[in-house]
Amino acid sequence: MSPEELKSIKHSIEQELVETTSSIEHYRNLTKPIAPENAIGRISRMDAINNKSINEAALKKAEQKLKNLQIALNNLNDSDFGICAKCNQNIPIGRILLMPQSRFCVQCAR
Fold first, then answer.
1. Of 20, 38, 107, 110, which sees the most CB atoms within 10 A?
2. What is the domain range of residue 31?
3. CA neighbours within 13 Å on the CB side: how many for 99?
4. What percentage of the chain exceeds 70 in pLDDT?
């Protein structure tokens, strides 16, 4: 990869890190315990509990994405960065810019 491409990828990863960190904080606020003394109706409370579980799943996904982005940033200068972990072919630069945390090409990711 050229130095310009690596610089572009690094910038993309850093932007994703900021956005993902922000999302994690947002999801943490949404997954706070639901107080039983709140005077909301039974159905509304069930909806709140359901929404909480959906937000918890989104939080876990965002936390995993953050870890993968940090790994990608640390491995940016490795010789095998941008090589598919399954088929050992080059991952297209467009995919790396869209999903810098991905270790697989489109075909192998399916």
1. 20
2. 3-78
3. 11
4. 91
Q: What are phi and psi of 83, to 5 degrees?
A: -105, 130
* 77-94 tens-digit pLDDT: 888 899 999 999 999 999
Mention every residue, 6+ apart, whose C-beta is less than 8 A from residue 99.
none
**Residue-level pLDDT at 15:** 94
Tell me which amino acid residue 86 is: K
Q: How many domains does the chain have?
A: 1
Does some domain include residue 88? no
Instruction: Please indicate, yes or no, if residue 39 is contained in any of the structural domains.
Output: yes
- Of the two residues 39 and 35, the one the predictor is more confident about is 35
